[in-house]
Design brief:
The protein is built from two helices and 13 strands. With 174 residues, the chain is mostly beta strands. A 13-stranded antiparallel sheet has the order 1-2-3-4-5-6-7-8-9-10-11-12-13, with helices on one face. A hairpin with a 5-residue loop joins strand 3 and strand 4.
Length: 174
């Protein structure tokens, strides 16, 4: 199906923790594949962008964070807190994501359990139990502080909780 100068490749209905959205894939006239996500009520949630389409301060942070790695997809996310940019990088076969604010500040970086302190690892393992870790993000706060946001699956349900930089359990997320 044609939409302007692009062609509609696919629409996929997704459900994340009961929230319905639609992932749309388009192919431009030049052959580039672009994606965007729309909520069930029709609001744009995210759109794939290129490095050339992002503000200079965001680009500077994304390029610095990608470093020697290969920069992958960049998504411009729209939510109640404002606009953020989520990017993927691949370094030595290891894929990680990170989030940059509209002002160019690094908001979070995906990390792996083995990179955390033993106390933080123990707290996470205790909370996850026999479940599975999906992703761990190091979230930066004010004055050089950070915490970890853990997303996992336990007893067939997606769970999310926070752990402090020294391993203290900070609570469950909605």
């Amino acid at each position: 199906t044609k939409a302007g100068d692009s062609f509609l490749a696919s629409i996929q209905r997704t459900s994340d923790a009961g929230k319905i959205s639609y992932e749309v894939e388009m192919t431009t006239k030049a052959g580039a594949v672009r994606t965007f996500t729309v909520s069930a009520d029709g609001k744009l949630e995210s759109e794939q962008v290129t490095v050339d389409e992002i503000p200079a301060e965001v680009r500077k942070t994304i390029e610095a964070q990608a470093g020697a790695g290969q920069l992958g997809e960049i998504l411009r996310n729209f939510d109640a807190g404002g606009i953020t940019y989520e990017a993927d990088k691949n370094l030595n076969g290891e894929k990680r994501s990170f989030v940059v604010t509209e002002g160019g500040h690094l908001q979070s970086v995906q990390v792996f359990l083995s990179e955390l302190s033993p106390d933080a690892q123990n707290t996470i393992k205790t909370r996850i139990g026999s479940g599975k870790i999906i992703e761990i993000d190091k979230v930066f706060g004010k004055k050089n502080t950070f915490s970890f946001e853990i997303e996992g699956r336990k007893d067939g349900k997606v769970i999310s909780f926070d752990v402090g930089q020294k391993g203290a359990f900070l609570g469950m997320n909605d």
